[in-house]
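All the exercises in this workshop are built on plain-text protein records. Instead of coordinates, the fold is spelled out as a row of discrete tokens. Once this layout is familiar, the rest of the handout is easier to follow. The record below serves as our worked example for the rest of this section.
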Amino acid sequence: MKKILFGIVILISNSCHLLGPGDGIKFTVKNNSDFPVDNVRFTTSENLAEFKFDNIKPNQSVSDFLSMKENKSDGSYVLEFTRMNGKRESKGYGYYTNGGALDSWIEFEIKNDTIISKYSGMKH
């Protein structure tokens, strides 16, 4: 019985560690506009880690994992890029708390006149 209880405690502590705050978030940026976007940057409002992409062509997407191990406070995710007409887009999306992602992933869909964001997989 003690072995079963010990196993349950280990399992619970490991699962909390795997999904705990500060790990990070998976992200995808899809360019579903008619034009390429340049100087794409994805980060948190604390600017402690970032991903940069020189260019995302129409109907192309990029994905990665943004580590948030250094983040400590509450904030949002920031997506920045430049449209073909030179217009710079920069906006905060979503929310994280105490440096930890509340969702498993975030997806951005860039269209000609807007940006759609989707979130999923509540971690907690």
In short: The helical segments are 2-19. Residues 9-22 have pLDDT under 50 and may be disordered. The longest helix spans residues 2-19.
